[in-house]
Design brief:
The protein is 25% helix and 26% strand. The chain contains nine helices and 16 strands. Strand 13, helix 7 and strand 14 form a beta-alpha-beta unit. Helix 2 packs across helix 3 and helix 2 packs across helix 8. The longest helix is centred in the middle third of the chain and has 14 residues. The two termini are 27 Å apart. The relative contact order is 0.16. Bound molecules: NADP nicotinamide-adenine-dinucleotide phosphate.
Length: 334
């Protein structure tokens, strides 16, 4: 009998004390078991690295259960079926799923979706045609509800979610303002993505720069980072402004998140709403339909940061938590 094929996998082996580190992960090699009836084997081509994974590394109360120790690290994947004993899939099908940080995934077909990789690259289904873009769509349309002429601000503006928020706000007739870390990211946000302007929060004078960028105040704020950025944005909110709280990445990796002036929520009569995109599955088909149309007609620009090889996933993930990515962070396995 031929030797069983080897699967390389990355496990979470310990929980971070403060900042996460590569030592929290371990690369192991495991033989692949033969498929059972109803199962599908997928060769993962791309892993999606996402900020929410940092929360799963902790054993803390949250909207989702923690990642169990000594199991494959959770995560979105895009790949190709190599073998199937499930009538809904055949070898060669391109699929996206949640197969985690490993080279091969085995699935009973639940949560595995076929995609058409003939017209857009497979990787796009993890970013601009996937969860991050639907997140942008929902937070903007479902919570901020932008009206033409309003000013919409988004933090982490060059990233997977933020880049889409600003482009959709612009398409809705708003003034789109980004906040991003560094001159190069800000230049990209304006020159390639078409935002009206972008504030570099690392330039050392955030409050003055925000005032100069939006003298008329802010009607909608799409929050991705929290902390000092949120504290600088809040005083610029107009009465009856809306804040979609999508993420607070500056507080994910073991740092506290102080909020300076919560009373502004009252005095400016703000609507502040957090959301989790997987709790709004009803809007996914509509959002993906609109986003797909925009990508096909080149009205929605996107950028990817691609790390090479499974062994580099932990370092790329830690980089994402410190702004080293420039666009949707992926790991290419094939
Ligand atoms: N609610 C939901 O359902 C949902 C779904 C998806 C994503 N999210 C959230 O959306 C946000 C963006 O996610 P993404 O996938 O699009 O990631 P991303 O923006 O592509 O990458 C993360 C970016 O966050 C910024 N960042 C990192 N550390 C920071 C810090 N200390 N202070 C300020 N900015 C920092 C960096 O950009 P700069 O270099 O510009 O600082 C980094 O590039 C995250 O907060 C994530 O948790 C929420």
């Amino acid at each position: 009998m031929a030797d069983a094929q080897i699967n390389r996998r990355i496990l979470l082996v310990s929980r971070p004390q403060g900042e996460a580190s590569v030592s929290n992960f371990k690369l192991v090699e495991t033989p692949l078991a033969p498929l059972a009836d109803g199962e599908v084997r997928v060769r993962n081509h791309y892993l999606s690295l996402d900020p929410y994974m940092r929360g799963r590394m902790d054993d803390a109360k949250s909207y989702a259960a923690p990642q169990p120790l000594n199991e494959v690290m959770i995560g979105g994947t895009a790949g190709v079926v190599t073998e199937s004993r499930n009538p809904a899939f055949k070898a060669g099908d391109s699929v996206v799923g949640m197969l985690g940080w490993q080279e091969y995934g085995t699935s009973d077909g639940r949560g595995l979706n076929k995609v058409d990789a003939s017209r857009v690259p497979l990787s796009a289904y993890l970013g601009v045609l996937g969860m991050p873009s639907v997140t942008a769509w929902y937070g903007l349309n479902g919570i901020i509800e932008p009206k033409a002429g309003e000013t919409v601000v988004v933090s982490a503006a060059s990233g997977a979610v933020g880049s889409v928020v600003g482009q959709l706000a612009k398409a809705a007739g708003c003034r789109a303002v980004g906040i991003a870390g560094g001159a190069e990211k800000c230049r990209y946000v304006v020159e390639t993505l078409g935002f009206d302007t972008c504030v570099d929060y690392k330039a050392g004078k955030l409050r003055e720069d925000l005032e100069a960028a939006m003298p008329g105040g802010i009607d909608g704020y799409f929050e991705n980072v929290g902390g000092e950025v949120l504290n600088a944005v809040l005083p610029r909110m107009n009465a009856f402004g809306r804040i979609a709280v999508c993420g607070m990445i500056s507080g994910y990796d073991g740092k506290p998140l102080p909020m300076d002036q919560p009373r502004l929520i009252l005095t400016q009569r703000l609507k502040v709403q957090g959301f989790i995109v997987y709790e709004h599955l009803d809007i996914w088909p509509r959002a993906l339909g609109e986003l797909g149309e925009r990508v096909a007609t080149k009205k929605l620009h996107f950028r990817e940061s691609i790390a090479q090889g499974l062994e580099n996933a932990p370092e790329a993930f830690l980089g994402l938590l410190h702004g080293k990515n420039f666009g949707k962070q992926l790991v290419k396995l094939v």
